Amino acid sequence: MLERIWRLIALMAVSGGVLADCPSETEMAALAAQIRAGEPVEVDRLGVISADDGHCAQKQLVAALRPHWGEPVGYKVGLTSAAVQARFGVHEPVSGRLF
Q1: Contact 55/22 with Cβ under 8 angstroms?
Q2: What's the pLDDT at 34?
Q3: pLDDT tens series, the chain, 99 aa
Q4: Helices assigned H by DSSP within the chain
Q5: Is residue 40 classed as helix, strand or coil in its secondary structure?
Q6: pTM for the complete prediction?
Q7: Domain ranges, ordered by start, for the chain
Q8: How far apart are CA 42 and CA 87, in angstroms?
Q9: How far is CA 75 from the centre of its chain?
Q10: How far apart are CA 85 and CA 3, in angstroms?
């Protein structure tokens, strides 16, 4: 489950062609409910979004999960090597909150 969440957060945070805006709070609340229920999450459900929109989505997801899981306890950083960044087509590391 954490693998799926991490992949979703990584995809939300990567730079790319902007095809979508920051997801609505309603969309992110639905995603949070799906995560809390242990249901599978489609990692590409948001499409390709900008890094700014990814950070916006992450902020909304954390806000939706906080009442159920408490305060985040830290960060997870990924895509830290040049080789992995090249594989995923990004130019900088990504990070996500840990509960």
Answers
A1: no
A2: 93
A3: 555 565 566 555 543 444 468 888 898 999 999 999 999 988 777 777 788 888 899 999 999 999 999 999 999 999 999 999 999 888 999 999 999
A4: 2-13, 25-36, 51-69, 82-88
A5: coil
A6: 0.71
A7: 2-70
A8: 20
A9: 12
A10: 18
Residue 54, sorted as left (phi over 0), alpha (psi -120 to 50) or beta, turns out to be alpha
Tokens found for residue 59 = 């902020």
Residues facing residue 94 across a β-bridge: 78
Exposed/middle/buried for 15, CB within 10 Å: 0-12, 13-18, 19+?
middle
Return the residue matching tokens 């950070």.
55
Q: What is the pLDDT of residue 19?
A: 47
- Max intra-chain CA distance, the chain: 37
